[in-house]
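Below is a concrete protein record.
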Amino acid sequence: MDREELARLQTYLRKTFGTAKLEVRARPKKTDSAEVFIGDEFIAVLFREDEDGEISYQFQMAILDLDLAEV
């Protein structure tokens, strides 16, 4: 993913999740995915899918049982 694509995804996710603190960052040594952070906390990986010329993105977020204990 190039800088323009990362910026567009970041704008979309900030609007969707309602926070300006969300950042989409390039992954070292990977071009098909990016990391998603809110502040300093890593929350997800965003994968780029290109199937038959149609591009889509998959947002993969793990929620640990430990995190749910705080709710």
Notes: Residues 3-68 form one domain. The mean pLDDT is 95.
